[in-house]
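Minutes, project huddle
Topic: does the predicted pose make sense with zinc ion bound?
PN asked that the exact inputs be recorded in the minutes so nobody has to dig through chat later. Recorded below.
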Amino acid sequence: MLKNWDLTVVYKDWKEWDSSFDNVKQKVALYKNYQGKLSSFESFEDYYKFDEEVSKEIYKLAVYAHMQNDLNTKDEHNDSKYKQVMMLYSELVQASSFAMPEKISVGEEVINSFIAKSDKLKEYRFSLEDLFRTQEHILDQKSESILANFTELSGITGTLYSALANADKTSKFVTLSDGREVEVTSGNYRAFLMDLKSQEDRFIVFKAVFERYAENKNTFAAFYNTVAASDWANAKSRNYASSLESYLFNDNVPVDVYKTLINTTKENTETIKRYIELRKKALGIKDYHTYDRFLPLATSNKKYTYEEGLELFYKATEKIPGNFTELAKLALKEGHVDVYEQPGKRTGAYSTSIYGYNPFILLNYNDTLDNVFTVAHEAGHSIHTLLSSEHQPFATSNYTIFVAEIASTFNEHLLLDYLMEKSTDKQEKIVLLQQAIDDILGTFYRQSLFADFEYQAHTMLEQGQPITHDALSKIMVDLYTQYYGIDILTEEVKQFVWAYIPHMYYSPFYVYKYATSYAASLKIYQDVKSGDELALDKYFGLLKSGGSEYPVDQVIKAGVDLTTKEPFNAVVERLGSLVDQLEKLL
Ligand SMILES: [Zn+2]
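Predicted holo structure (tokens), as shared on screen:
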């Protein structure tokens, strides 16, 4: 079995890539021929055909170079190729920048009449509608150009955050209770927390990582203040009622979805506290702390070769009627999965695609149970891509992050249920249950908690209250008490966890999507599992719909209404049932 990517299906070699590159480069120069002509139907339609052709080819160039680069990040040739295509992309953006304002000045009514006459333009109906939807928050040209100056400025906060949080991140050496001196980094500290038997040692390791946030609390708070203040300035300038509203506008997500998520989650934390009690008893811990959360309740040293992992996953997919297993096999087709670690290869895992090609998956498989779940997860993304590109034209084939994690976590639920059913080993069952529970706590509850934090901190600023490190820590202290019943003030440095989450500095109001996706996928999975054939059709409908509608509408059609409490309550119930099972086993 071939366990590397065969990228020759995309380009025979770099020479072929080069000639495609030259071709795109020539075409980029032709954009100007359309300038000033978009008010005529023929030019308008032609422009879309031309732009689509160029876009398809430049994506292909970029994804290929990106994948080559990921296979060996130390190879300078690949790196320079990737940079080369990114520069061409900037040229393309520049060359086509006249189009958006010109389309707007042509006006919605005229454009609708164009759409009615053209099959190609019908494919772009959704994106054109969306263009006019956003108009309500776009200002006149002069104001836009003033705002653009400040956008650049507000982006600097992310750079500053990253400089302080990462660039001078040095490892720390700490001495454990047995006299061992170990090097702790933010990359390895979790492994220590899973492994160290003494709570005191776990505290030492945890503190080594979080201390820097405590030491720089004033600076981190000042950064966060800048993030929230520039978000609010932008929201006010563009006529939004709040920063939250301005961020949700892009995906057309109602503010109520966000508020329902954080409120429903916060009101339903009894099961987390019950789980913590169980852990305390099983692990013999008197005072439970956040740095105890990685300790395993059981260990299983079982290894799964890649072939065995695939077999397990395929068996799990057989629970779904129709051609789901076939799709799974297509997603994991030979030559489309790069399986093992290699020197220089990018870490982690992902699924990526080029329109018209079978998607590709990158793994760093090393025979653990976790890796088998990663296979299922990435195969979910690829199945989504397969269905979306089969049923959508290029224009609407790209789906949003908001729906992306539904297909991946759906597969994880499927695999977990299969393994639970099949397993006769008590230890293995405990491992699986803990994995499932911790997954809900990490993906759903923890992200809701951070989403809640972002909302509270931004609201505070919008109401004119100052953002200080004390104020930010207080929000976190309260949330941790509400969620986990843990007073993080007793952990010395944990209250500064708001400085530890890079997403809150780079992309505010983003992490809630993990929680909403998780809730949607669980609800869909439960509906499908109950044998409801309509539910399966609806799920496939969601995957096939790609990016042709707004995500909340897509999810409603799949049977999940995120504007209600129902899907979030379903997660709460699922957690309850898993904790019940765990309690019995322990
Ligand atoms: Zn994913």
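Observations noted during the meeting:
- Residues 426-462 form the longest helix (37 residues).
- The chain has 25 helices and five strands.
No decisions taken; revisit at the next huddle.
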